[in-house]
Design a protein that fits this description.
alpha+beta; Nucleotidyltransferase, domain 5; two-stranded antiparallel sheet; seven-stranded mixed sheet
């Protein structure tokens, strides 16, 4: 399954999702005790935390019941500018989230589903006028971002992670670079590096420029997001191999490359990650399914903004799938700017 992206200005930098960070961190806990020793030494007792994450309980969807109750939904909010603007991920007030993704872990723990919500998606923010979904963070902080996403998926978010993407170049280098199969040849407008079509190996710097590019691509930002998913799958493929997971030196490098760029709610702590990882012990990169909240393409708002129009009829199918833990039956379609 392939996701799509919104139309963003060229100054918007790397948008590789934070899944490799959060799930990759969880994955290393599924190794033997030598890995536990390394991770405890690297991370200490907890990850960086952000407070006041969830909205008032009465504003949220009802809690899931029945067999779907043990499924988990993690909201991942990412940007490449938070650290530069605020100096810390613990204070993102007034900022917009460049990447919004929901990671769904089903009750049977056999797969992981990742839904992108395009940052320019036009919605009615809870308690406000229509606006792009990424504005929720600016207007109401993380709680309004959570409330807005919950209104789209029709069920509750269990945990939240904030990610500054400055750590991803180091992450790619920490796994020894990545191998991709590039569908479209292009030259980076940022670095001039040429990426031929076909198989190639990228180091961290090359990965960063590859994932940032949109201007040189026929399908613009939509194609850039597809390229970012190529990178994501490649990073997951390297980070979640047994060769990496049993090597304490590689694990230490991986965790050291990303720890300072992640902040989580106080429930997404080491005990939670450790328990989750034991349940996900058999998960590998091919068990991830990527898709995007359905859209009808780009458009223009009444006040002249370039926006992405959500497909509300198809979104109702997505909501039912989240609510009933049946995302394995949802079939998204390939989308472009048109």
């Amino acid at each position: 399954m392939t996701s799509v992206g919104g139309w963003h200005p060229p100054s918007v930098a790397w948008r590789i999702t934070s899944i490799a960070l959060v799930v990759g961190l969880a994955a290393v806990y599924s190794v033997a005790s030598i890995s536990d020793l390394v991770t405890n030494r690297i991370l200490g007792t907890q990850l960086n935390q952000v407070t006041e994450v969830f909205p008032a309980d009465e504003t949220r969807p009802p809690e899931t019941v029945g067999s779907a109750a043990s499924a988990q939904n993690l909201l991942l909010l990412g940007s490449d500018s938070w650290n530069a603007v605020n100096g810390t991920l613990e204070n993102v007030s007034g900022q917009r989230s460049d990447t919004i993704m929901v990671l769904h872990i089903p009750a049977d723990r056999k797969n992981i589903y990742v839904m992108s919500i395009l940052r320019d998606s036009w919605i009615i923010l809870p308690g406000r006028e229509p606006e792009k979904v990424n504005a929720a963070l600016s207007f109401g902080g993380v709680p309004l971002a959570v409330q807005s996403v919950e209104s789209l998926i029709g069920t509750r978010i269990d945990h939240v992670a904030l990610v500054d993407y400055a750590g991803f170049a180091g992450l790619a280098d920490a796994v020894g670079g990545i191998d991709i199969d590039n569908p479209t040849a292009f030259s980076s407008t940022a670095t001039g590096h040429y990426y031929p079509a076909g198989a190639q190996h990228l180091d961290g710097t090359e990965t960063l420029a590859f994932a940032r590019e949109w201007a040189a691509l026929p399908d613009g930002d939509f194609e850039r997001v597809r390229n970012q998913q190529l990178v994501m799958k490649a990073v997951l493929g390297k980070a979640m191999t047994r060769e990496t997971l049993v090597d304490p030196v590689r694990i230490a490098a991986l965790l050291g490359a990303v720890k300072e760029y992640v902040a989580v709610d106080d429930g997404l702590d080491l005990p939670y990650l450790t328990g989750l990882a034991r349940e996900l012990r058999g998960i590998r990169a091919h068990d991830f399914t990527f898709f995007t909240a359905p859209t009808t393409g780009i458009g223009t708002s009444a006040d002249g903004q370039s926006i992405v129009n959500l497909d509300w009829d198809k979104l109702a199918e997505v909501q039912r799938a989240f609510q009933t833990d049946t995302l394995d039956g949802y079939q998204p379609v390939f989308q472009t700017m048109q």
